[in-house]
Amino acid sequence: MGKTGTQAPGLHDNALARNKGSALELDWINDIQVNRSAVERRCSTLGGRRSVKKDAQAGWLLKAITCIDLTTLNGDDTAARVRRLCAKARQPVRPDLLEALGVADRQITTGAVCVYHRFVREAVEALDGTFIPVAAVSTGFPAGLSPHDTKLREIEASVADGAREIDIVVTREHVLTGNWQALYDEMSDFREACGDAHVKAILATGDLRTLRNVARASMVCMMAGADFVKTSTGKEAANATLPVSLVMLRMIRQFHERTGNIVGFKPAGGISTAKDVLAYQILMKEELGRRWLEPDLLRFGASSLLADIERQLEHHVTGRYSANNRHPMA
């Protein structure tokens, strides 16, 4: 794929080393504990004690756009819808707003476009000449209950069609039964099948029942080489939440401190407003630091979020809220 212009680095346009993983340490996994009340207390006070306004808020929201995996994962997806999505990924904010904000020369794009395997090649062609990678959901998304060999072939097919990121779904049963060796082996196989493509491990946290399970599953997937841990498919009854995210961020920090490996984070599902995304960015900065606000370490899985961010940016420029139809996504 050709590359033109300059922009914030994406997952593949930086010098960040991939997660090499580590041996499965069951003693470490079994020792993991989570204080649910402390987690909930920390998250409940986040919005009230943190405020980002005016120019600073606009800057944070522009950064958030570069971290969005602009997504369509619907049963009625078509090639035309995917091409429109890719056009929006190329130009996520109206040029007049970028000019008014003084960033018209930044060539701001979304972090990636995320689609089913069926549309990977279509998206790759639509994004030719950009830095924007295509991410494919895989391994029997969203349930993750396809035969293991079928999952591996699906990954390999998406990589062959040009996907540079693969969002895999773990087998929830391994987590719910505490079969950490099976989860580690599965994730290791997925990592190998991805080759040079980065792999995001979707935990489907809404199905895992406890925060301790979320923490342990996060750690096992990172040990097995996941480049990102991701909250949800967006199809569960409960998707990304701040408490779940805090637990996962603490595991990323612990894994980094113990192994030196850096892993990214992707909250997905239910993040639909600018206010939502600011809370996640603040949590990310406070728990992991400024480095984790870049698109190679932070992604938001979202379909409607971009429209609200663009609407908030227009309010910042004009002082008025506009109708959503002024900010079409696809």
Automatic annotation (TrEMBL):
TM segment ranges: none
Top-rank taxon, per record: Bacteria
UniProt-listed InterPro entries: Aldolase_TIM, DeoC, DeoC/FbaB/LacD_aldolase
Lyase in keyword set: yes
SMART domains: DeoC
Pathway per the UniProt entry: Carbohydrate degradation; 2-deoxy-D-ribose 1-phosphate degradation; D-glyceraldehyde 3-phosphate and acetaldehyde from 2-deoxy-alpha-D-ribose 1-phosphate: step 2/2
Gene3D superfamilies registered for this protein in UniProt: Aldolase class I
Gene Ontology cellular component annotations, sorted alphabetically: cytoplasm
Chemical reaction(s) catalysed: 2-deoxy-D-ribose 5-phosphate = D-glyceraldehyde 3-phosphate + acetaldehyde
Annotated GO biological process: carbohydrate catabolic process; deoxyribonucleotide catabolic process
Name assigned to this protein: Deoxyribose-phosphate aldolase
Gene: deoC
